[in-house]
Q: What sequence folds into this?
């Protein structure tokens, strides 16, 4: 879902220059692969977002996330400089290790250019310096040498892309103008290495890749969102989200379920109801996050609970945002585990304004 | 009988020997203290001012490059931005931050604003401050009219966040909006930060960078990597460490600083000399007092120690006062003139004054040691006098001699002659200064000999005052020598400085006349590296009515060696035949056919070891091009050197047809004012340029010159005052010693006026001899200053110009002042108590 | 009646010293040309003050001092200096010869001051040197002479310009008795020989005895005395 945090930067542009002419997200645009796996630079925002659970042996389980994010500033510049900020790229990576008890995370940011930071069109190839997410020979590879850890992971798709909303047109609010093009690659098979504390650990696991692009995502009433994506143990995939208004109520909601048999069901706002089960208050920021949820999806109830409580990402120094993003386990109504995935909670500290 | 309480403190003898004399002659003690204090104060002030300036400049340089481990620095017109990804991809490079540097003029003020163009994302790794300041509005910084200002820039320009102001950079004038102010501690210097893309575009730097700051991976070996990175760089671009940057900042003003420090040493030397003079005379005056103490049982060694203790006390009080005075002087000077005392090395820097006790200690010790050294010889001589003889009346006149004879003087002069041809040490003319010290000191040693010789030949005139005066001079050549030496040193210094400054000024004037042959000059604004006259404008200028001929020149910055500051490269129409006419050529060599000639300035020749006929590789557009040195020319404008090539050759090599300067010759009958107006009307509005006549340029240059040398005049005045102090000290002591004599002369029927006239005559004769010797010594010193010190410090040759009228007038004034000072010191001789002095023997 | 060379009438002078007020009270004295007197008295009684008044170096608070009939009190300093230069000679206890002038030059000093041409001066100096038996020391410097010799030079200097009055202030104070006696005799002989008057101020009875008359200076005035 919306890993828009850094995109908020772009929204603050109050420039004398002409505003950028962003293409609208309209229903009916057919997504084609692998072309749409590449960058869509005309749109305002775009991200490739990989989350997943890793098995490091001895039953040690870790969560990870790797995000590459592209933003086209609201600035139609005539500046011929190669440094002109036509595209900005950001990357964020984190590892959740219950043994550590907090997120290990790092980030990169750059303006695109000079081959140092680029997001390629037509194929997944996005990189900032030595951080990259590239698809080649049908395999996605993430190489993330970060400050406290390193990720060197390969992701193999076992299923076709899962298109959200109406064939990839995902509405985010009451107005159809608030929407994105959005598909996921769930049930990715992970293999590779994670480096931490000077040790290299071979890991396997399963992951989920989101690719989403848009020009206008949040409407004026929305202050944040809750999102969850679960790789179900039976081979299915479940994505649920809701946009929150200032009173904490649901302004919009939606979701997609692909069954083990491949049947896809899209959920309308009325089908999805988020109910917090437990709050956790960050000792650093003082913000309370509902880190466990009971979510009604049509006639089913899914409960999600975190791998560990403290998965707060504080990026206030660089982007001014703080949010919770972490590995969660999913349970059915009888509290039986049904899958694992990631939960994202934004706009809890203060409203995110577009 | 009631008992009177007796005060018999411990150390009575020491008190009698040390404090007694001080209390007895508070005036003399004060004089010594003042002299020491002046020397210490001057030295400390120069040190403080300069340290504040240099540390400010290097702190500024460091803050600009943030936490960079290496800085890839290009000349002012930069290098291709294609270098940036190459550097960023070097594996050991953790972060690479590209930088645009420019200087923009703030329209409506006389201020310029240094502007940095940064990529905030890249700079964040090296400048946490920028990251923090820009973070919350990261993208706002992309605004093409947005700028972040340092606190001092905002203060200087009277701007706050949200304000707009107009700057002129290159050909364009643009309005900027203050996005925010950087935290006060972030950059002490005046500075604005823009987005690199906006800076490249708006400042006319598309495709170029001035700098890439590099942060290395932990554990990377810096020096090794520096060599590898240097190999990647085109000619003229250097990989520098922050230490290199410091050294460049310091080297900029080093020669200037050393010159000032040498002047303060001169002051200290003069102060020490004055202590010597007063102590020598005090020893004479207290001869019998000392003899009495010796007769009472004080050993020679103890008496010597007492005398040194006295001098040490004076030294400590003087040095302490000097340190306080030095701090005050530095504070006032920094506030009033800025860190470079008006010399223009450190514009836009706001230095702060700070002094630790450890730093003050050497200056304090210098003051004390000077006092002790000054007292050493007279104290030993006084302690060594046989007490029985000294107790006898009429034995005053065997004072400590300032010299062990003229042989010492000759040896010093020989040493000076040997030191003069020696080269600079580490770029500093240390041997030149040593030679100057030897010349002056030698003259001081020769002075008694000269005095004896002269006094023996003074004509006999049957005039009582004259007879007594000349007899006194003949009888006490040593005492007279003190006065002579004081005047000699002060007038010598004044003469040498006056000759040097006048020579410099006259040479500059002649030079300006030579290098400004045209009728009118048009040059782009102060932001020289961004402002150009493009080819279209050149055609427009040349075609302006009233202009008969127009020549265009291009100036830019290049690096010839990584450890030397940048040089100016000047491209203008040149042909070898004309070089002699348009340049102040000092030497020349024929250039073989097929070679491209380059004319290098004296500074460039000295700094880079070039001589006519040499081959030199000049980096142009990233490639080292071979040139042959056709000649060496005099250039007072660029201290770090300049190289001049023909403009056609330059355009051919670089394709750069732009210009910075136009030299314009008017048609017969055309008026400068009308042509200027026509030029202004034709050039595009908003172009940043100045039009000036040679007369105006000369006036401005001379004004800057005079301001730069203002400090020298102050030092001259100080030297003269110290010289007069010397005369005053000498005569005050003499008058005290000769009170009986004056009383007798009054009894014999001399009027107070006659006694005063006699003293004035003595002072005048001594002053005249001092002035004559000072003139001779000063002339020789000025030659050393011009041909050795100045040449080695600034790499400028000067033509000798002697301001005879000025020197004679000043000399005459000093002779009169000496006579007046002597008479003034003798005022006591005219008082009634002198009459009783005839009966006051003890 | 012949005008006295010097007459003091009711001269008083007071000035404060650090410990006591020194007072010269109602002093009367008449001195004719050729007189040779001594003034004696205790230390601190005002002998030097009296001498300064006579020399015109100071003025009395009351009373008058006439020298050759002219009132010193009515003259300005320049006139008194002129008078002193031309008509008086001085001998001091500490000799006060200029160390850097030769004996002859020291003696010639008053002649030069009185603008006597050098030939006449040379002859006069030679005669004086013979008179004080120092003919062979003409070109010596004071430092080379003994105390007695120095005072003989001083006597010659005092008489060089043929003054009418020679004032000698403790001229033998720094000398041994034998030398003192020789100097006193010489002084008297020289003063007599030049037809000058002499005032010898001394606290030494032996010295005072060399004079024709002796006066005693007391706090109440100058009284004739017998030492």
A:
């Amino acid at each position: 879902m919306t890993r828009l945090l850094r995109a908020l930067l772009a929204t603050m542009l109050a420039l004398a220059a002409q505003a950028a002419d962003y293409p609208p997200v309209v229903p009916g645009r057919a997504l084609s692969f692998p072309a749409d796996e590449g960058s869509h630079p005309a749109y305002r925002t775009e991200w490739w977002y990989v989350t997943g659970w890793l098995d490091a042996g001895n039953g040690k389980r870790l969560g990870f996330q790797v995000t590459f994010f592209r933003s086209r500033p609201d600035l139609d510049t005539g500046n011929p400089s190669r440094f002109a900020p036509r595209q900005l790229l950001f990357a964020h990576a984190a590892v959740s290790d219950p043994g550590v008890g907090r997120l290990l995370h790092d980030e990169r940011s750059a303006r695109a250019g000079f081959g140092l930071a680029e997001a390629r069109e037509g194929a997944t190839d996005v990189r900032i310096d030595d951080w990259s997410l590239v698809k080649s020979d049908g395999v996605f590879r993430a190489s993330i040498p970060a400050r406290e850890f390193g990720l060197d992971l390969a992701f193999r798709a076992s299923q076709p892309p899962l298109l959200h909303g109406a064939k990839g047109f995902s509405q985010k609010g009451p107005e159809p103008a608030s929407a994105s093009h959005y598909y996921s690659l769930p049930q990715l098979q992970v293999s590779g290495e994670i480096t931490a504390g000077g040790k290299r650990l071979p890991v396997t696991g399963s992951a989920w890749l989101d690719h989403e692009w848009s020009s206008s995502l949040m409407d004026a009433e929305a202050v944040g969102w809750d999102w969850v994506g679960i790789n179900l143990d039976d081979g299915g995939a479940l994505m649920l989200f809701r946009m929150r208004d200032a009173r904490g109520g649901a302004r919009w909601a939606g979701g997609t379920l692909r069954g083990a048999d491949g049947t896809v069901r899209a959920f309308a706002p009325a089908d999805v109801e988020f109910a917090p089960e437990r709050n956790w208050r960050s000792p650093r920021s003082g913000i309370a996050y509902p880190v466990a949820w009971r979510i009604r999806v049509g006639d089913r109830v899914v409960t999600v609970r975190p791998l560990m409580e403290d998965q707060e990402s504080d990026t206030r120094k660089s982007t001014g945002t703080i949010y919770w993003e972490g590995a969660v386990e999913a349970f059915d109504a009888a509290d039986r585990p049904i899958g694992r995935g990631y939960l994202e909670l934004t706009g809890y500290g203060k409203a995110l304004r577009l | 009988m009631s008992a009177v309480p007796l005060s018999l403190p411990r150390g009575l003898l020491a008190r009698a020997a040390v404090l007694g004399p001080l209390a007895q002659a508070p005036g003399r003690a004060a004089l010594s203290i003042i002299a020491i204090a002046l020397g210490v104060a001057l030295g400390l002030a120069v040190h403080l001012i300069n340290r504040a300036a240099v540390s400010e400049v290097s702190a500024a340089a460091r803050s600009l490059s943030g936490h960079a481990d290496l800085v890839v620095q290009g000349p002012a017109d930069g290098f291709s931005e294609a270098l940036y990804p190459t550097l960023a991809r070097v594996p050991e490079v953790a972060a690479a931050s590209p930088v645009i540097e420019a200087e923009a003029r703030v329209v409506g003020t006389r201020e310029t604003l240094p502007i940095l163009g940064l990529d905030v994302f890249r700079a964040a790794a090296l400048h946490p401050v920028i990251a923090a300041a820009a973070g919350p509005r990261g993208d706002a910084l992309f605004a093409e009219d947005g700028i972040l200002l340092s606190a001092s820039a905002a203060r200087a320009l009277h701007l706050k966040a949200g304000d707009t102001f107009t700057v002129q950079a290159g050909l364009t004038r643009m309005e900027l909006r203050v996005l925010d102010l950087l935290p006060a501690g972030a950059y002490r210097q005046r500075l604005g930060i823009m987005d690199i893309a906006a800076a490249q575009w708006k400042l006319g730097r598309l495709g170029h960078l001035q700098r890439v700051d590099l942060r290395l991976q932990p554990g990377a070996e810096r020096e090794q990597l520096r060599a590898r990175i240097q190999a990647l760089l085109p000619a003229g671009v250097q990989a520098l460490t922050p230490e290199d940057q410091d050294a460049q900042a310091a080297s900029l003003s080093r020669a200037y600083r050393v010159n000032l420090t040498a002047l303060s040493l001169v002051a200290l030397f003069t102060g020490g000399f004055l202590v010597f003079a007063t102590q020598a005379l005090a020893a004479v005056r207290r001869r019998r007092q000392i003899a009495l103490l010796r007769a009472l049982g004080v050993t020679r060694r103890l008496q010597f120690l007492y005398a040194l203790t006295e001098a040490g006390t004076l030294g400590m009080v003087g040095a302490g006062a000097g340190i306080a005075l030095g701090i005050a002087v530095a504070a006032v000077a920094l506030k009033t003139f800025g860190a470079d005392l008006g010399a223009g090395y450190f514009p836009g820097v706001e230095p702060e004054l700070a002094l630790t006790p450890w730093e003050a200690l050497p200056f304090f010790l210098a003051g004390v040691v000077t006092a002790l050294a000054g007292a050493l010889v007279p104290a030993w001589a006084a302690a060594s006098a046989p007490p029985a003889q000294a107790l006898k009346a009429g034995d005053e006149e065997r004072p400590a001699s300032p010299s062990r004879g003229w042989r010492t003087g000759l040896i010093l002069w020989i040493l000076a002659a040997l030191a003069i041809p020696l080269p600079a040490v580490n770029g500093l003319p240390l041997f030149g200064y040593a030679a100057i010290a030897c010349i002056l000191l030698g003259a001081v040693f020769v002075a008694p000999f000269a005095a004896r010789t002269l006094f023996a030949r003074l004509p006999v005139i049957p005039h009582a005052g004259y007879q007594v005066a000349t007899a006194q001079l003949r009888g006490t050549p040593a005492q007279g020598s003190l006065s002579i030496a004081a005047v000699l040193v002060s007038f010598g210094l004044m003469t040498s400085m006056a000759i040097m400054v006048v020579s410099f000024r006259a040479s500059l004037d002649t030079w300006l006349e030579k290098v400004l042959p045209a009728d009118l000059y048009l040059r782009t604004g102060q932001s020289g590296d961004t402002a150009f006259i493009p080819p279209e404008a050149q055609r427009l200028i040349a075609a302006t009515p009233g202009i008969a001929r127009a020549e265009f020149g291009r100036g830019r910055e290049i690096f010839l060696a990584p450890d030397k500051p940048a040089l100016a490269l000047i491209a203008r129409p040149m042909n070898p035949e004309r070089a002699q006419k348009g340049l102040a050529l000092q030497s020349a060599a024929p250039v073989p056919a097929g070679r491209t000639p380059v004319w290098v300035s004296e500074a460039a020749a000295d700094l880079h070891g070039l001589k006519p006929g040499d081959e030199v590789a000049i980096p142009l557009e990233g490639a080292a091009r071979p040139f042959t040195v056709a000649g060496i020319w005099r250039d007072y404008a660029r201290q770090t050197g300049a190289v001049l090539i023909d403009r056609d050759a330059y355009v051919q090599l670089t394709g750069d047809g732009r210009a910075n300067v136009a030299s314009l010759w008017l048609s017969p009958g055309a008026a400068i004012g009308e042509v200027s107006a026509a030029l202004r009307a034709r050039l595009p509005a908003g172009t940043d340029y100045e039009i000036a006549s040679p007369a105006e340029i000369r006036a401005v240059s001379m004004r800057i010159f005079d301001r730069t040398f203002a400090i020298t005049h102050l030092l001259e005045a100080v030297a003269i005052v110290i010289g007069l102090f010397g005369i005053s000290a000498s005569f005050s002591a003499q008058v005290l010693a000769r009170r009986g004599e004056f009383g007798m002369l009054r009894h014999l029927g001399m009027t107070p006026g006659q006694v005063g006239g006699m003293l004035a005559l003595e002072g005048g004769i001594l002053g005249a001899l001092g002035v004559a010797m000072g003139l001779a010594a000063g002339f020789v010193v000025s030659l050393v200053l011009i041909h050795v010190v100045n040449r080695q410090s600034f790499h400028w040759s000067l033509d000798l110009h002697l301001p005879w009228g000025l020197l004679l007038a000043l000399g005459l004034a000093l002779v009169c002042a000496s006579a007046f000072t002597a008479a003034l010191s003798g005022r006591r001789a005219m008082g009634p108590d002198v009459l009783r002095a005839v009966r006051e023997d003890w | 009646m012949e005008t006295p060379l010097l007459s003091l009438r009711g001269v008083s002078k007071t000035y404060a010293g650090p410990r006591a007020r020194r007072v010269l009270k109602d002093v009367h004295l008449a001195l004719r040309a050729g007189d040779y007197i001594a003034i004696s008295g205790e230390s601190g009684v005002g002998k030097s003050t009296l001498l300064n008044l006579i020399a015109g170096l100071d003025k009395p608070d009351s009373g008058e001092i006439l020298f050759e009939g002219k009132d010193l009190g009515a003259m300005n300093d320049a006139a008194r200096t002129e008078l002193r230069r031309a008509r008086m000679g001085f001998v001091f206890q500490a000799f006060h010869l200029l160390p850097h002038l030769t004996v002859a030059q020291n003696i010639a000093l008053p002649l030069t001051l009185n603008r006597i041409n050098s030939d006449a001066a040379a002859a006069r100096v030679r005669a004086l040197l013979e008179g004080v038996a120092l003919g062979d020391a003409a070109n010596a410097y004071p430092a080379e002479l003994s105390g007695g010799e120095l005072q003989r030079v001083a006597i010659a200097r005092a008489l060089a310009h043929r003054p009418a009055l020679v004032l000698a202030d403790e001229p033998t104070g720094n000398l041994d008795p034998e030398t003192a006696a020789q100097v006193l005799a010489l002084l008297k002989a020289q003063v007599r020989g030049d037809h000058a008057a002499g005032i010898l101020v001394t606290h030494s009875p032996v010295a005072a005895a060399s004079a024709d008359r002796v006066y005693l200076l007391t706090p109440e005035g100058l009284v004739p005395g017998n030492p």
In short: Residues 405 and 445 of chain B are 6 Å apart (CA to CA).
